[in-house]
């Protein structure tokens, strides 16, 4: 093996050429890709948590809205209820699309 910079003989396990100091291999490549993989899995974990929590929260809001609407016959509570149900359905639809995209 020869150095691509000075074309002198070097051993294959060298990181820097001992003749000219040219960097032969990316030293931090492994650590960077490992870190990227970690942050990616962390991002997926957060996304999973959000997609798990959002429908749950909207269903809870919907439940509260329905209860209040029944108790007070309040138009605003009924509005909140229908909004929350719509949001829950939208969240579930997004959840299903994301699941399909991941496990396609
Ligand atoms: Zn060299």
Name some characteristics of this structure.
104 residues; rod-shaped; mainly alpha; 2 helices; binds zinc ion
Spatial gap, N to C terminus: 44 Å
Relative helix content: 55-70%
The hetero compounds bound to this protein are: zinc ion
Rg value: 28 Å
The portion of residues forming beta strands comes to under 5%
SS-derived structural category: mainly alpha
Principal-axis shape: rod-shaped
Counted by DSSP, the helix tally is 2
Got a strand count? 0
Mean pLDDT across every amino acid position: 78
Low-confidence segments, given as residue ranges, are none
- The run of helices and strands is HH
Describe the structure.
The chain has 104 residues and is mainly α. The protein has a domain at 41-102. The protein has 2 helices and no strands. Helix 1 runs antiparallel to helix 2. The radius of gyration is 28 Å and the shape is rod-shaped. The mean pLDDT is 78. Zinc ion binds next to loops.
């Amino acid at each position: 093996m020869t150095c691509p910079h000075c074309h002198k003989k070097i051993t294959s396990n060298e990181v820097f050429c001992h003749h000219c100091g040219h960097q032969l291999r990316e030293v931090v490549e492994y650590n960077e890709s490992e870190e990227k993989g970690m942050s990616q899995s962390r991002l997926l974990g957060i996304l999973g948590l959000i997609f798990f929590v959002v429908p749950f929260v909207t269903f809870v809001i919907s439940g509260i809205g329905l209860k209040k609407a029944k108790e007070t016959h309040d138009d605003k509570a009924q509005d909140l209820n229908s909004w929350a149900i719509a949001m829950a359905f939208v969240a579930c639809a997004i959840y299903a699309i994301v699941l399909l995209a991941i496990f396609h």
